[in-house]
Amino acid sequence: MSEKRSWLTHRVVLGAIFASVALMPVALWMSLIGGAAGGLAFTTILFLMLMLRGSKPLMKQEIYLLNLAITTAVYSIFFLQFINRVYFAEAPEARAFGVTEFLPRWWVPGDLMIRRQIVRTFLHPAWALPIAVSVAATALGALIQVSLGYLAYQLYVVKERLPFPLARVSAEIAVTLGEREPRKVRTMSLGFVLAFAYSLLAYAPYIIGSTLQGQIVSMIPIPFADFSQAAETYLKLRGTLLGVSTDVFTFFSGFVLPTRIILHMLVGSLAVWVVGNAVILSWYRWVVPEWTPGSNLQTNWQLTYMHVWSAGLLGLTFAAIVSQLVGGWRVFSAIFKPLLVGEEQGARTILYLPLLAYACGAVAWLALLLWLVPGYPLAVALILTIVWPLLSTLVNARAVGETGYPIAQIPLRELLLISSLRDVPVRSELNVAAWLAPVPGDGVGWCTEFYVARYVGVSIRDVLVTAFAIATPLSLIMSFVYTSLLWSFSPIPSQAFPWAQASWPIGVIQTCIWITRGTMLQSAIFNPGSLPILEVAMGVGLAAFLASTLLRLPISPMLLAVGASTIPPYAITIAIGHVVYRMLLRVTRGELEQLRWPLYAGAVVGYGVSTSILIAIAIVAKTSWLAPY
């Protein structure tokens, strides 16, 4: 009954506007400083709930739509990708791989003033083509993903009524926020105060100091405290990534993550980035020729990832894929039955309409891809734009519906391009453009979104209008405004943006590894004569799978792969947070178990409010004398 009523109220619209104006700079800045800015949707929702205490309370349907609108409006920072591309074009890592001069103009401008970030503005003719291509790909991607998501929704939610266990959590949050239980409110207030005070102390020097072009002096290093040099000096462990994360989210994640997941993360992370690095740099130092004793954590991370662990993590990923495919064979047996067996004409029409919309979007994407990259392998283009998004949606949406987790994504594009471009020079315009060309995703996320909407009683029409008619335009406008403003402060990355300074080179390395088709991978198969890092890592992952299957040991190759891809500062801090949670659980005689989520939510809100205030001060101070570049 409630689905027939529109819950798209003026309060939802006002909440989305407020979030895009007030909180997008928080998400943008924190993605460059600390790596994450979670919970901003709930910051706005709780703010509105406080503001509306004397009037009609927010309903669960409004809370759900607010969460959708705010998440879309705040986190979809469209224009930040272009600054990342500018960095890529002049990054020393890209130059080391020899791909810089072959970057296509539809991906990044060729103007050296832009590439070197001397001119830092999007109001330049050279940006017209890259922005237009990205807008077209985003629009077509939305059509494809929504169509496939609706198809999967009809198959697995409406027809088969699969449980979607983890998606239900989002729906329950919307319901719980309307309860306003006093004990939970007090706990949330405690989390707010702690995180608010800490965030002011931690981030003020970086946000205010860097904005005013002063020297950054802080008692709390961001994004992590680096102990790698101390480990090398006192423990004789070379090149480790030992450290502690200093953001509030990582610590409080230890309060809510299960012990099993945390142990897998800690073991996987330390095995690779502490033990593995020490072994490689002690006995196989020739593999990482640029490394020198005394290097800091950031340097150790970038160099060992490029030369060693890009192959190791790929091997663990392949092992996780195999374990998921073998363990999830029942998923495949039930995928196509609903499409091939239709009970009545109406049911078949409901399935065929989204398929038709998907076909239109996929054909348009195929045309765009072939226009951008003349010479792109046609068979690969057909698979990636027309066949694979449909298959991936049907497989993974059912897996998520039954278990809550998707089957691990196969790097299909990478494997197809490696095989089909074998006769094309690695360092050529065709090869580089083929790897950078956009390809559509699947519709699993939208299937899950439609499930949550059905659960709380919101129509799909309200979902689509909220996402695409309200949140997306706000996101595009404010993303342009705030990204342009932030870029005008200083080049990105720089000392003012420590997370981007540490992580963006890793992204460049990941992309270049594939563009050069693994020519720098430590793999006896890809590169005979090099260390068999990829093969050993895959063997370890498969051994873990066999041990868990045959010996019933609680080992998950997927979780080990996640842990190995998590650097120790984050894995260690999550573990510390979990130890503190267990201690407090004893002190409170188990009461904290019911209050840990409100505590976490309060910390998120306190973090969001404090950084919003700091960024507002910084913007006001900077814009009073800012020059365009």
What descriptive keywords fit this protein?
629 residues, 69% helix, 27 helices, globular, mainly alpha, two-stranded antiparallel sheet
What does this structure look like?
With 629 residues, the protein is mainly alpha-helical. The chain is 69% helix and 1% strand. The longest helix has 32 residues, at 128-159. The chain is globular and about 70 Å long. Mean pLDDT is 82; it is low at 342-346 and 625-629.
Roughly how many Å apart are the termini?
56 Å
SSE class = mainly alpha
Task: Give the helix tally.
Answer: 27
Please state the CA-atom Rg, rounded to the nearest Å: 25 Å
Q: Give the % helix.
A: 55-70%
Strand content: under 5%
Could you list the spans in which at least 5 consecutive residues all have pLDDT below 50? Answer: 342-346, 625-629
What would the average pLDDT be, to the nearest integer? 82
- What's the arrangement of strands in the largest beta sheet? 1-2
Largest sheet descriptor: 2 strands, antiparallel
How many strand elements?
2
Taken in chain order, the helices and strands follow as: HHHHHHHHHHEHEHHHHHHHHHHHHHHHH
Shape: globular
